[in-house]
UniProtKB/TrEMBL annotation:
It comes from the Bacteria. Belongs to the UPF0045 family. Pfam families: Thiamine_BP. This is MTH1187 family thiamine-binding protein. Residues 4-85 form the Thiamine-binding protein domain.
Amino acid sequence: MSPTPMGDENGRYSCVEGAIRVIEQSGLEYEVGALGTTIQGPADRLWPLMRELHDATLEAGADRVMTHFRILEAKDDVVEASMADLVSRITH
């Protein structure tokens, strides 16, 4: 989510934090990074979650939001690598 503004008098990143609260409530595995957030879960839960995250930034006070996301899904519905696997490959 790239909200404008990113925050308000309640906090520098309050609009982004609104989306992160929705992710926390989803129960899916996630990792917040400096320039983005990674969420792992079944595609049928991720697609509607993306809309919820978009809406959450607006509800948190953003005037507008541009949403960028990438979904990795294997044809046989089995993803070969978890978030931890992918990160460990680049940090070792």
